[in-house]
């Protein structure tokens, strides 16, 4: 290279061929001066473009033509030399050991620098469209260029966001230290700010389709956009929800708040999780619903189950009965309720979680069923409940007795706790005896 960069006076004569050679040699010389001090970075460049770097770890002219460079997971600590890639549009340097970035090529459109140890970012190129800097140690972000449309900076320590460009459509700032958000762009379609310290949200743009604001300190939610399809607001301090738009067709997750009631549910909603609140009832369930999670509330009755429902998780409530179960239902968790019998199990394959001390028999046995007790341990499938039970004169052991229709008894109940449950009638005939040592409960209750 020394020979290449030493020019004689004879060479510099104004002929076309020699001028062309001179310009080529000057260019090559210029690139020879851009060194790549990090050996791992040099090797990563060499792997991606063997002609872009010399054996002395200095850039060669082809580096100026590279449009994309991926040097992920190469153990790189220093990206010095990246400025020599003067046409670079995409830089991917994920999962390295970077703590800072050098000045970036002005041509850069997309930057992915996730999973490093970055504490700051340099000035961003004026044409940058995509910035992903997730899982670093950033406490602040530089000003954003007006061209930026997508920003993902989740899992950092950012407390304040700069003004957002009007072009932005995607913003993911999960798990930072944000206490507020700036004015949201009117073009924004995706907003995820879960796991921050937000006490309020700004007005939501009418274009917003996805909103996740769980695990904050929110006490209210602003009016929801009419195009919103997915809404997560779990683990906040909410006592009510705003009206839900008809466009909400994917997910509503409002678990772990202080809700005592839910608004009307959109007809197209597929999944709802309203667990860990203070609900006593639920509104009419959408016909499209396939997943219902409502654990740890105070619900004592449920509306009819829609035909497409496949998963019901309603443990830790106060239910006395269930609606008819649809054929699509294959997962049912009803542990720690007041249930003693179930409606017909219509799905041929089911996972059923029960309190084995309360539900001692089933209305029918599906072709494939796995039953779990309160500790979520598989247990033998309970037998089918008898249609009628008749206890004649004599001693009857303390237990729970469940009949699909009627119970008649002239028996003497043994000491302990005995329960009679039937759906039509319970008749205690002359001669029936319950001693002072017996706790006896009689209840006529529908299983549907």
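Sequence proposed for the structure above (448 residues):
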């Amino acid at each position: 290279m020394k020979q290449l960069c030493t020019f004689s006076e004879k060479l510099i004569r104004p002929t076309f061929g020699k001028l062309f050679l001179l310009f080529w040699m000057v260019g090559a010389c210029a690139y020879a001066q851009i060194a790549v001090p990090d050996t791992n970075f040099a090797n990563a460049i060499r792997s991606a473009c063997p002609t872009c770097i010399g054996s002395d770890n200095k850039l060669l002219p082809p580096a100026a033509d590279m449009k994309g460079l991926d040097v992920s997971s190469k153990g790189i600590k220093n990206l010095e030399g990246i400025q020599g890639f003067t046409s670079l549009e995409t830089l991917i340097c994920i999962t390295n050991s970077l703590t800072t970035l050098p000045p970036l090529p002005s041509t850069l459109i997309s930057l992915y620098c996730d999973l490093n140890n970055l504490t700051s970012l340099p000035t961003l190129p004026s044409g940058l469209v995509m910035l992903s800097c997730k899982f670093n140690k950033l406490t602040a972000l530089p000003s954003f260029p007006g061209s930026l449309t997508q920003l993902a900076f989740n899992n950092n320590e950012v407390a304040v966001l700069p003004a957002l460009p009007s072009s932005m459509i995607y913003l993911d700032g999960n798990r930072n230290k944000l206490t507020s958000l700036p004015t949201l762009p009117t073009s924004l379609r995706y907003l995820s700010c879960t796991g921050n310290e937000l006490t309020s949200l700004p007005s939501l743009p009418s274009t917003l389709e996805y909103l996740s604001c769980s695990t904050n300190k929110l006490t209210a939610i602003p009016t929801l956009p009419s195009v919103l399809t997915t809404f997560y607001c779990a683990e906040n301090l909410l006592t009510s929800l705003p009206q839900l738009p008809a466009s909400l067709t994917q997910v509503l997750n409002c678990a772990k708040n202080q809700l005592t009631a839910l608004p009307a549910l959109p007809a197209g909603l597929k999944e709802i999780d309203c667990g860990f609140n203070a609900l006593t009832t639920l509104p009419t369930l959408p016909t499209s619903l396939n997943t219902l999670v409502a654990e740890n509330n105070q619900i004592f009755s449920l509306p009819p189950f829609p035909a497409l429902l496949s998963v019901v998780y309603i443990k830790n409530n106060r239910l006395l009965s269930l609606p008819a179960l649809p054929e699509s239902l294959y997962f049912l968790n009803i542990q720690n309720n007041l249930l003693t019998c179930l409606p017909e199990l219509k799905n041929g394959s089911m996972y059923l979680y029960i309190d084995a001390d309360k539900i001692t028999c089933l209305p029918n046995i599906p072709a494939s069923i796995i039953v779990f007790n309160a500790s979520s341990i598989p247990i033998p499938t309970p037998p089918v409940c008898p249609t009628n039970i008749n206890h004649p004169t004599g001693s009857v052991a303390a237990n729970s007795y469940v009949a699909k229709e009627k119970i008649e008894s002239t028996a003497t109940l043994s000491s302990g706790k005995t329960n009679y449950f039937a759906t039509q009638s319970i008749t205690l005939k002359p001669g029936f005896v319950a001693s002072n040592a017996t706790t006896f409960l009689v209840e006529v209750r529908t299983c549907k």
